[in-house]
User: Fold these one by one.
Assistant:
Number 1:
Amino acid sequence: MIILGIDPGLASTGFGALQCGGRVPVLVKCGSIKTSSHDTMANRLMQIHEDVNTVIDQVQPDLFALEDVFSLVRYPRAGILLGSVLGVLYVTARRRGLPVQEIAPKEIKNSLVGFGNAGKKQVKDAVASTLKIGDISSFHASDALAVALAVYYRRDYRRVV
């Protein structure tokens, strides 16, 4: 089984794919999709849609895992923009016939670090350690891999060997 984890964002959407067939998940691909703040909202959302479709074509996931994001009351515009990105991601996944699993940030941090308020560096280090890989290209890619790992742990996709 391949789980594609997504860390949604308008400026940068992280992605991370894990092969989950053995005792330990194996990194397939990770990175981030960056959009230009100088482009229109419609073009940025279309770029996210097209680039996620490209990633789906490349890694052929069985499950699409999304960080269940929230918005602070102090930043309503940010919440609206993030909601637009999420809408595009949900539609992209469903149009490709992929089941979608959402997972809360606290659950992700708790499952990887053992502390629901862990910092980004702690999560990044935990992901690198778990997957036995070196430095991950960005916090967005690391967060996306954390999403995939946490969904893997939650659903227990590991085979009994």
Note: Confidence is low (pLDDT under 50) at residues 157-161.
Number 2:
Amino acid sequence: MRIYLVGYMGCGKSTIGRKLSDLLGISFVDLDKYIEERYFKSVPAIFAGEGEKGFREKERISLHEVSQFENVVVGTGGGAPCFFDNMEVMNRNGITIYIAPDTEVLATRLIKSKTERPLIEGKSHEELILFINDALLKRAPFYEKAKIIIRGENNLDPQLVIDRIKLLG
């Protein structure tokens, strides 16, 4: 079993992914952490040194690698589904779940987050909401290809996710 969690940064992919993997008794892989360990650099350092193009190539390679793992929940980076054939690779190899909380929830979480996120650094709450809405307009066509879409859940219950997966049969 492979489960891929997709959605915008701050939607809860890592948090729900860890809880889901615990509940299912399988491994959790945070794709960004996997990239950092594989290339011995932080994601911001890869962006700074190689630009987005270099990072996205490393992300694509890493996604293909973790797509060979068995019994895993993968929390992808927010942009991962939007490049190359990444979304198709995930749909072919497992169950994709798009976690889509409200924009206001995303903005609040991102402002409170201690994670370094170069794309949103220094933005006010209002600027962040505009930025998120703009990004979601571009990314939604990719995210919407997920087999399961969960909208508006602010504190997503892992059991809800498991129930939705069971409905797929």
Note: The mean pLDDT is 91.
Number 3:
Amino acid sequence: MPDHFYVYPSYLGRGRSRDEGRRVPVDLTVPDLTAEEILAAAQHLGYKATLEADKQYPRAAALFLGRIKVMKRGTTTKAAFLRALATELHRRRAAGGKK
């Protein structure tokens, strides 16, 4: 079992369908999401995360939006982490005023 998992902006991005790789419910999606925002939110949640800017999501091979490598912690599942991450991104956007 790997000690990490990857998070692509497509997992949480608004405008993506489940077939296109979205992994969270529509109400948790974030518009115009960047890998840097995901990195900051993951680190704020206490996870060790690194940006891999030159990577692409296989379902959108023409776009190099990057990905985040997140080290697993405890028994947290990827699905639970993505929901917590989406909630944190919404909180950060609300505090920062970015829509």
Note: The CA atoms of residues 56 and 62 lie 8 Å apart.
